[in-house]
Fold Transcriptional regulator.
Amino acid sequence: MTYPPSNDLADLLVHLARLAQNAANSPLTAAQWTALRYFARANTFSRTPSAFSEFHATTRGTASQTVKALVDMGLLTRKAHAHDRRSAVMEVTAEGHAMLAHDPLGGLRQVLADLPQDDRDSLARSVRRAVTQLAAQRGAPTFGTCSDCDHCEPGGAQAYCHCTQTLLATPDMAAFCVDFRPANAAES
């Protein structure tokens, strides 16, 4: 049987992801690294175990166990949510930020940075499109940053989020958001 090139590409992407996530002698599992990275990059509205479970495409129970392990290691702290007392907001500790300096994805980031700019841009567009289409097929959320979100209305020093009905500071513009909607989604 001959496999279509898309099978080879899918297998290559899975293999690349596994290579990038597996580091010898790492104190964290791949899921724990993903969680630590997520909470370091997520905006305030998205730093909850529930939002992480959506991002990681896992159950809330599994996400909760991953978060608990990171809290127990002192890499995350749990704070009461300002607007929803039933929920908690996760914060990366100084120890967590220090751990991120040894992130196994650093090797992949360097390999990608070494690609010619045109190749990187093309790869980024293709992977974003694939993520968006697969998420739509599976009914899963598509994560992205506020700067690329249809809910965001840029405006000078601050932007406005129509979803959360709040002003966004500059650091929020580069943060992951659980309520992200691709800028072209309204036209689709």
